[in-house]
Design goal:
Helix content: 25-40%
Strand content: 15-25%
Strand order of the largest sheet: 1-2-3-4-5-6-8-10-12-15-16-17-18-19
Shape: elongated
Number of strands: 19
Number of helices: 18
């Protein structure tokens, strides 16, 4: 008997006879799909039917956010010398340089270099293997067996793994024995019921691991001695797993620095207890992110939030505990009906008074998403900003709403009192998706009138503007505002990345040479 919740049945009724998106949704919600995931999918559909097509497209297509690029070019090819040039200059190069050349070729061509001459015969076998060939799945077993190792990098990301599932455990065992360092496994099969072999839990030499579209093996009975002593980067894209399995990996990865979890349909409860993590990036929905004890954590990046409460009706939560080095945080959604921010044991509300217990003084870059036409959301801004007294760069994304519930005017902003970080700390304000509403303009005027050390303001226009005259009518009034800082420069521009891909980019988020990965201009 079908015991799935009523909300799921209602969504299925709406979509069963719908277009392509509906049929795909119905297929993904097959009986094999766990109820928690199917319920979350249904809830998202009922909240935003028009947005489901984009969400499903992302789920069923290769992710460009979590998965790293292959280290070799698929377009690289090995060619013989031209007839008029019989001088073999390459063979005169040192062994180390020849090995570097071979390592940049696709595995098929790299292996063929052994036939060039006696000088090249042992180069491929003595070079750490890089296997990143989408078309080589049928030949993987032979390649892995022929090369003695070590294996620097193996990317298998274009195969329907159910065709090779019987071989996969053997492949992983060979990789474990031959000291694999970086592994990318992208399964192309739906629905998500293909179990990743537990052999992956024995790969102690891994430094980077990226998995997409798998069911993670149960870690309940795994020996306590199991660990990933060298793992520094972990990326999980739509991986079906229990929260205890993720806790298991974090607990057994003593040098893990970067964690990225991507998935729109998985209700994630993440407890961060790690002495090594520096960057955590969550793309998609979550139920709770609790930074319990992360003394080295510098960045907590959240993008594409829940867009509403969790399927059981509870609010999603971001809880910040011990994280003394946290410098970058966002995007936090200021929607008190659906999203909660907790600092220590205090829930931050519109009327919360700032105190040392509610402050996170280490944060220098803060990103907020707020619906300015929803009064209760906008009223959260002063309380939240008082939790971060030392913010120097503030990103504000104006969220969409279908129904206005009251606006805050300039007088209301001034009556909210002094916000210390705006008055004396913020040097850069980036305002995204500006639509020119009265509430947005009132906030910006308040900011200009209050910020004593402000140096730069970037206003990224929403895509809905159709002419310069319309832009001028919405932005023009800001030019006459009395500014507390006379040194401020103002840039008004069309957003160069309207989809926000740079926010979701693991490469940008985990690159500490990029001071502010939220900036796109």
């Amino acid at each position: 008997m079908d015991r799935r919740p009523r909300v799921l049945k209602k969504a299925l009724e709406f979509m069963r006879n719908n277009d392509e998106v509906g049929r795909l949704f119905f297929r993904l919600c097959s009986p094999e799909l766990p109820d928690t995931i199917a319920l979350n999918m249904a809830a998202q559909f009922l909240r935003d039917p028009d947005g489901m097509e984009a969400i499903l497209a992302r789920m069923c297509s290769p992710t460009q956010y979590t998965m790293p690029n292959p280290p070799v070019s698929a377009g690289a090819r090995l060619y013989a010398l031209l007839p008029h040039d019989a001088v073999d200059r390459l063979s005169r190069l040192p062994d180390a340089l020849l090995g570097d050349i071979v390592s940049r070729l696709p595995a098929k061509d790299a292996a063929r270099t052994a036939a060039l001459s006696r000088r090249w015969r042992g180069v491929w076998r003595s070079t750490p293997l890089i296997l990143a060939d989408a078309h080589l799945c049928p030949a993987v077993s032979r390649v892995l067996a022929d090369h003695p190792g070590p294996f620097r990098c193996v990317h298998i990301n274009s195969c329907e793994m159910d065709d090779f599932h019987a071989l996969l455990a053997g492949w992983l065992q060979i990789l474990a024995v031959k000291a694999i360092q970086e592994l990318v496994l992208f399964n192309r099969r739906w629905p998500l019921d293909l179990l990743l072999p537990s052999t992956v839990l024995g790969m102690t030499t891994l430094t980077r691991l990226y998995l997409a579209l798998w069911k993670f093996p149960d870690t309940a009975g795994v020996p306590r001695a199991t660990c990933f002593p060298n793992l520094r980067q972990l990326g999980l894209c739509n991986v079906l797993m229990e929260n205890r399995d993720l806790d298991f990996i974090l607990d057994r990865s003593p040098v893990l620095e970067t964690l990225c979890v991507e998935g729109n349909f998985f209700q994630l409860r993440l407890r961060l207890v790690s002495q090594s993590l520096r960057c955590v990036q969550i793309i998609g929905s979550f139920e709770e992110i609790f930074v319990v004890n992360a003394p080295r954590l510098e960045r907590l990046i959240l993008s594409e939030g829940n867009q509403g409460c969790t399927p059981d009706g509870s609010c999603s939560k971001v809880k910040i505990g011990h994280s003394p080095k946290l410098q970058l945080l966002g995007y936090l959604e200021l929607d008190p009906g659906n999203h909660l921010l907790m600092v220590g044991s205090t829930i931050i509300k519109a009327a919360t008074r700032a105190s040392p217990r509610t402050m996170i003084p280490s944060v220098r870059i803060l990103a907020l998403e707020v619906r300015f036409d929803v009064r209760n959301d906008a009223k959260m801004i002063p309380s939240v900003l008082r939790c971060f007294p030392n913010v120097e760069t503030l990103h504000i994304k104006s969220g969409k709403t279908h129904q206005s519930t009251g606006k805050l005017n300039l007088k209301a902003w001034h009556e909210s009192g002094t916000i210390e970080c705006i008055r004396s700390r913020v040097k850069r304000l980036v305002f995204r998706d500006f639509r020119g509403g009265r509430s947005e303009n009132a906030f910006l005027k308040f900011f200009f009138e209050s910020a004593l050390v402000l140096e730069e303001v970037a206003i990224h226009l929403d895509a809905g503007f159709t002419s310069m005259e319309e832009v001028q009518s919405k932005v023009g009034s800001l030019g006459s505002v009395k500014r507390a800082s006379q040194a401020v420069s103002v840039l008004v521009t069309v957003c160069s990345d309207p989809q926000g891909d740079y926010i979701r980019s693991l490469k940008r988020g985990s690159d500490f040479s990029i001071r502010d990965p939220f900036v796109s201009y």
